[in-house]
Amino acid sequence: MAVSKDMAIYVKDLLMEEEMNGARLISGEEGLDNEIKGVTIIEAPDIVKWINGGEVLLTGLYAFRSCSMEDFKNYIDELVKKKISALILKRGKPVEGAEDKVEYLIQFSRKHTIPILEVPFEISFRDVMSRLMERLFNEEVTRLKYFKTTHDNFSALVLGSESIGVAIDQILDVLAKLIRNPVAAFNRQLDCIGASEGAERSLEIQKDAQSYEPGIYSNYEYLRQQIDNRQQYIVKVKLNLRERLYLVITEEEDSFDVMDAIATESAIWALQFELVRQYSVTELEKKFQNDIMHNILNGKIDSISELQKNTSLLGVPINGSFRVIVFGLKGEDRDKRDFKSKISDTHLLSDAIACQMTNVKIYNDLDRIVVVKEVNKEQTQEEYRQEIREIVDKVQAYVSRQDKELQVKAGVGKVVEGVINLPDSFKEANEAFTFVDIAGEISEDGNSQVTLFSDLGIFKLLCQLDNPELLLEYVPEGLQKLYNYKKPQRDDLLITLKTYLDRNLNLSKTAQDLFVHYKTASYRIEKIAKITGVDFDNANEVLAFRIGLVVYKMIEKYNKDYL
Hints:
Alpha-Beta Plaits; six-stranded mixed beta sheet; alpha+beta; Beta-Lactamase; 18 helices; six-stranded antiparallel beta sheet
């Protein structure tokens, strides 16, 4: 449907109307391009209370016949706030101080670029008003018809599309043709999810972006900003509690006007429909894959034929090489958050992993995200260790953009051959994840974000123990005495011991790390030796104490009721 892009009525159009024959412009020529959005007759001085803006006001000054010049000025000055389009003046009836009031209107007109047209006395305001209202009504009808036409076109597009995802680009292409400007759509993370030809696939919402009124009633927020000497319009659409859509229109050929806004609103409806459809299908697929992954990872597949069927549905080779990674979040405030907030955090983590890891299968396991990744058997352990740390760093950066308080952690299982052995890697990944904070105490670089189960060394055996009494057997008796030391200095002594061991028994570096005097550090070490009986010159005893500190932390963290 061909529709004129400029359906508006302007003040200059009034001079062409037959009903305005004999009209002349007496002031405010600069405002002839003001758009007319309504028309009313000034029947009383307080009419300003009842106008919305953009009106042409018709007056014979009779409403002001008895008011003082000061009151008249106050009434007229109030019109500025309403941004009226023009005044049409008709003189003839006796009005006190009429010439002075007309002169003030002329001054007002020049100051605020509001045109004043004077019409002969015999012209009926009713005829002028009727003609304007007829044209304004026709414009609204045209807009309504255009909205229906565009809405029907977009409805047919999305309802007739059989391919998930393709419809988004089709919607944007159609909209771009209607408004003759490139269009792109972005998700909450400002990742491009679709674009018409020639549209920018990156978006930065500038701090000085201004609110924009599209000239129609809308449920969405419009912003306008300057990009490389071009106007860019951003429509912010809230899809649900988690998702947001940004529709971006960049002026390349034509300026963005009210008819474009109407087409944009119809396109937004179609995009919402398509995105909801995609979301529903995706969630259904996730639920289906989650069920399969749960059964495989927990060893609940009873036969080879069932395993073959499930791996086929997942799209993974049954005899491939795999590794399982368990991701989770930690943070001081996270435990205090309500259930919905924690679910939202987990969804954020899942989105981050999906963005940073390709060709993987993702399984949501309550507040953890389990990833099954096919691996290259030729890759060395050190190469993989570096790769997974880089991935975790990228996932952390993604999460931090949304919530700087959340920290990502990951536990990694061993490489296994065949899908049937995934439960072994999953078990190790879970154990590495469970002890990831403690593992930071024993890793060479102190990295507590990600832990490979294979890096735990002797602690792999301790991970198998869930009985605190058995774990306590790996804590030297002397160290137990220090933990049971009931005096206030106990915590200072424990931190001093740990630092002393970390610094390879270097007393000077220990004092520096603890910000205490050398003599203070020396006194504490002597005190520790006296309580525990440890011989710091005996390498075996020192090693036992190193292991004991980590084991005690395991007991302390995961078996608090026992201590």
